[in-house]
Amino acid sequence: MAIRGGGLSRKSKASSEIPSSSLADIAFLLLIFFMVSTVFRSDKQRPIDWPEAAAAEKIDEKVKNILNIWVEQDGSIWINDQNIPMDEVSQIVGPLYADSDRRLVISIRADQDTPYTFIDAVQKELVSANVVRVVFATELERQMTRVRR
Amino acid sequence: MAVLDQKKSKVSDEIPTASMADIAFLLLIFFLVTTVFPKDKGLGVVLPEEGEEVAVAQGNILHLIVQQNGVVDVRRGESTAIQQMRPGDIESLWRQEVASNPNLIAAVKTHPDAPHRHMIDVLDALQSAGAERISLQILEE
To answer: What CATH number does domain A52-140 carry, 3.30.420.270, 3.50.50.60, 2.30.130.60, 3.40.50.300?
Structure first.
C-alpha cells in the first residue's frame, strides 16, 4: 500500500497556536487574587481632635518609614494599635529606628487639647532613642474659616 | 400581503456588548491614573541629638513663653521686659526680629498644662515666617 505523497503532506491535527482565549480569564483571576490578598499596612485611627496649622507640609518620606505616635488627651500613647506606657516609648521606637536605617520619621499625632507635659515627655523619649526627624501631625487649616487675628 | 407580517426587522434588538470590556478598561485606567492617596501633613521639627546641647548667647534668643490660656509672653534675650501677644502676631514679630538679627533662635517654652494646640499655633506662626532655628522646651516653674 503506497502512501499518497509519501506521508509528507499529511497535516497534523494538533493546532500549532497557543490557545489564547482563556488568557483574559487568567489575567482576571490574578487581578482578583492580588486585590483580595493585598493588605495596606496601617494602624487604626485613634479618636483625636486634630490641631490645625497653615504652614503644614506633606511629609516627604515613604509611608513605610513613617511611624505614628498617637497621644490622646489623657496622655495615653498608642503605637501600632498598642497602648504603650510613656517610659517604654524609647524602647519601642529605638529598634524600629535602627531597622529603618535611620530614615524613620515620627509623626506625633496628638489631640489638640493634650496638655503639653505629655508632648514634652514623648519628645524626651524620642531624644533618648536618638530619633531626629519628628513631625507634629496637623490638619491643614482651612483658609476660609481661618480666624483673622 | 401576508409577506409583510413575516418580514424581520433589520435592527437588532440587543444592546451591543462587544465594546463593554474596552469601556471597563478605559475606566479602570482612568481611575488608576487619577487616584491620589492622601499624604500626611504636619509641622516638621528636628530634635537635638542626645548630649548635643549648645550654649547660645542670650542676645540671640527670643523667648516665647506659651501660657495655659494661649497668650504668648515674648521676652528678648537678657531683657526682663515682657510683651504679651497672640500667636497670630508672632509671624510678623519674627520677620522684624530676624531682619535685625539673622542668628536669632526661637525658644518656645510651653506651660506643662497648656493645650497642645497653643504650642502648634506658635510653631505654625514661626514656620510661616520661615524660622528654622526653633527650640521646643517645657516651661519650668
So the answer is: 3.30.420.270
